[in-house]
Amino acid sequence: MRVVLLTGKGGVGKTSLAAATAVRAARRGARTLVVSTDPAHSLADALGQAVGGEPTAVADGLLAQQIDARAHLEAHWRRIQDYLVGVLSGGGVSELEAEELALLPGLEEVFALLEVRQRVAEGGHDLIVVDCAPTAETLRLLSLPQALGRYLDHLAPLSRAWGQVVRPLRAAGESAPPPPGAAVLAALDELRDSLEQARALLADPERTSLRLVVNPERVVLAEGRRLLGQLTLLGYPVDAVVANRVLPAGSPDPLVAAWQARQDEALAELGDDVAGAPLLVAPQQAAEPVGVPALAELADALYGTRDERAVLHRGAALRVEACGRGWELRLPLPGVERDEVAVHRTGDELLVRVGATTRAVLLPAALRRGEVAGARLEGGELRVRVAPPDAAPQGAQAGAL
Q1: Rounded distance, CA 385 to CA 146, Å?
Q2: Is residue 116 within a helix (H) or strand (E), and if so which, with residue range?
């Protein structure tokens, strides 16, 4: 079982390329499911067929599904939400406001991801292709399993110790919210376990590949570079970059030739930032690829002799190396500029921020007694120096590079 996710800026053609990848795999004998987490619901438009909230047969060996994240949120979050609403309402918050406050930002994207995990757990497919939502939603989709999991890790023990928490309030004659019932605690445990399984699935390069779709335009490529670094930071290395709508060379039209030359220059600059991942090229089509035959033609042009189901590139992982009296923690950050990165030490964790995306890296046991002595960005890699306590400069625990 393999999972391939295609992501990128809105409008770059992710949906068509995801559908094309799935069509090619199905035609080559793989039992394939293509799903979309994009609220634009354009998967049906690309396939030229109706696609529902459950897997729908669209061709031999090919099923398609438009995930209804709201329905999954209602099914899995409702018990927790009802309890939170009760607590907030008891504190004087109006019921309408309490309903809104009980929905954490990005929950719909998380439950779309859990639907993908559920399809993997059910089996029955050789390949699942995921058409992800545009960049901002994708980053929430991929970062929330860790963030929400940490939130639930703190919430569950607090819930179980609720009596000790509220006893002083009751002794003082103050009102206190009711403790969560067994159903709420079970829902918390189930959600936390599901998030951990989803995180493990996405972070396993043997099972899951991310492919970044861009157009050969400078503005789109700039966002693509940022997304590449942020995905790598979160532990999701990209196994290919797909340049879509690339003009063929040799046009006799001066305007088209000039446009094609600008595309070549932009792609050449991108080549230095993809950290070894292959650059796949999808040529500009004479007509919009709609329907299974047109998508199959697009996929053949994109992949050529490559196997669309294979791991096309294995990125470098976070590693620790001995360095003098201390250690150096190395984290790949392709396409990231120095002023976009900040590093902070908090307890046993190293917080690395790239733009608005933060990853908490649990330090290996050998490094936890040390102190951050400096950090630098070199060759697309963040290098954080950790020195023994007696060898680190004073106040070197946090800051930008």
Answers
A1: 25
A2: helix 107-122
pTM reported for the whole predicted model: 0.78
Q: What angle do CA 16, 21, 27 make, to 5 degrees?
A: 120
Classify domain 1-315 at the CATH class level. Answer: alpha beta
Residue with tokens 């059910």: 122
d(CA 72, CA 176): 31
What are the start-end ranges of the H helices in 338-395?
none
**Per-residue burial over 120-138, b = 16 or more CB atoms within 10 Å of its CB, e = otherwise:** beeeebbbbbbbbbbbebb
Structural tokens at position 310: 């294979």
Task: Say which CATH architecture domain 319-400 belongs to.
Answer: Sandwich (2.60)
Residue 260 in tokens: 């094609």
Domain range list for the chain: 1-315, 319-400
- Residue from 234, 244, 216, 199 nearest 6 by CA: 244
Q: Name the residue type at position 68.
A: D
Which of the residues in the chain have pLDDT under 70?
69, 72-109, 135-182, 184-185, 188, 271-273, 275, 390-401
Range 298-306 contact pairs with CB under 8 angstroms and sequence separation of 24 or more? 298/16, 298/17, 298/20, 299/20, 299/21, 299/23, 299/24, 300/24, 302/17, 302/20, 302/21, 302/242, 303/21, 303/24, 306/278, 306/280
| Cα–Cα separations (whole angstroms), residue 316 to 7, 35, 113, 204, 330 | 20, 28, 25, 13, 10
Kindly state the tokens that stand for 105: 């930002």
